[in-house]
Amino acid sequence: xxxxxxxxxxxxxxxxxxxxxxxxDGDPEDPASLTPWFTTKxxxxxxxxxxxxxxxxxxxxxxxxxxxxxxxxxxxxxSLRTSGTIADKAYDVIIVGxxxxxxxxxxxxxxxxxxxxxxxxxxxxxxxxxxxTAMIQHELDVPLHVLRRSIGAENxxxxxxxxxxxxxxxxxxxxxxDLRCAFRKKRTLFLSGEDFGARALTTEAAARNxxxxxxxxxxxxxxxxxxxxxxxxxxxxSISASANPAQLTAGILRSVRTRGVEIVSDxxxxxxxxxxxxxxxxxxxxxLLSARHVVFCTGYEFLEALANKSxxxxxxxxxxxxxxxxxxQWLDRYLVWEGSDPYxxxxxxxxxxxxxxxxxxxxxxxxxxxxxxxxxxxxxxxxLADLTGIAIGKPxxxxxxxxxxxxNGLPMIxxxxxxxxxxxxxxxxxxGITFSQIAAELISGEILGHRDADWDLFPIV
Length: 461
Ligand SMILES: Cc1cc2nc3c(=O)[nH]c(=O)nc-3n(C[C@H](O)[C@H](O)[C@H](O)COP(=O)(O)OP(=O)(O)OC[C@H]3O[C@@H](n4cnc5c(N)ncnc54)[C@H](O)[C@@H]3O)c2cc1C
Prior knowledge:
By secondary structure, this protein is an alpha/beta fold. 29% of the residues lie in helices and 22% in strands. The protein has a domain at 1-185 and 240-311 and 409-461: FAD/NAD(P)-binding domain (3-Layer(bba) Sandwich). The protein is built from eleven helices and 21 strands. Bound molecules: flavin-adenine dinucleotide. Flavin-adenine dinucleotide binds at residues 59-60, 65, 96-102, 119-122, 126-129, 131-136, 268-269, 297-299, 301, 316, 318, 357, 401, 403, 428, 430-434, 436. The site of flavin-adenine dinucleotide has 42 residues, from helix 3, helix 4, strand 5, strand 15 and strand 19.
């Protein structure tokens, strides 16, 4: 187990006088300049170079993340009590973020004789994980035949197969931990739309079958006959699932806590500094923590130093109907989405509600606009009625949220450049939960010393 640095401040000062600090304004010969710099200037640096040029930006971005309460907030079991005080100063692993990514990361590290801390500046499960519609899909936002063009056939195959395996693994974890989170295995119906018509879906189904991922192409007549939906084609596939994301996340967090993981909320990590074998973090409470490894699982609040044009935060809208809504029977076995941009997606819940979402807009703050939200909700309800005949009536829950996207739909999972023992899982889009599990597998592999064959698949660009 990691013994820590003893007196962390003394350690930092000793490093400062030997010239290791790279603060451009600091005097490396003056240890007194270190503490104020370290605790107040949120920059990422390494022994060799700064990787953030904006010293005034926060370490991780700040977003409201969502507006209004999703239905999950009204259901029991989706939260947990935590301490606001960190018990120790030294950990083997510190995970920043107590959403689904942090929870799955901790799950993959718990029980390994390591001291693990999860720290969040909010309460656990109050970030994007609470806003999720939790369609746990192997089907990525970017179809396999399209992804092939951007990352090559071999890597696209690996990504899709890895996603399918991750969905299966999430189901196993839920079963092993006996979590009560409304988990259901589901099929997926991917409908043709404005961006992907019947021809594209034919190519896509063939591409998936070629790499062993089951996909059945349905023509318009079959789709109409079996589902009452009027589109030119659809892909019907297995493997996916749905759950209550708050109960899922809180359940995993409760389970890792029984296996020794400490969870602390209302503490922000404000700075990070990496040395050869150690990482030092500063907190909003003025404490310094040391760890052998640090993993940033901060969702759409990207590490500012790594935020760039390849990821951006847009706006999305979702709603849930009242329970026991009249709906076609097949819908309880399917997740549905379409090949349009923005796309509509929907599913049912275990208590017979329909959740639907979409109407994404390429604007970071649009989800906060109340008038816009009302319009978006009306559009979602109308689109569902046009497509399926389902009458939602007045939704019981309406919410809007920030949503992180990347151009090729893939996350970034890896080491923070120049920081050997600092990892990050970021850039998740519509497949966030699936990617969280992949990140947990890849990063825990590095920490535990067994490199995953897919380690290079989601580079930080
Ligand atoms: C409306 C909506 C619908 C979605 N639907 C789906 C879906 O159907 N299927 C799917 O797979 N995905 C979906 N997603 C995506 C998925 O929900 C996210 O990818 C996932 O919840 C992200 O989890 P996370 O743990 O990474 O982030 P979060 O849950 O946001 O947790 C990150 C935590 O990090 C904390 N944090 C940030 N910076 C710091 C700091 N400096 N110090 C301390 N703590 C910090 C934050 O407070 C936050 O609690 C959806 C997202 C939205 C918004």
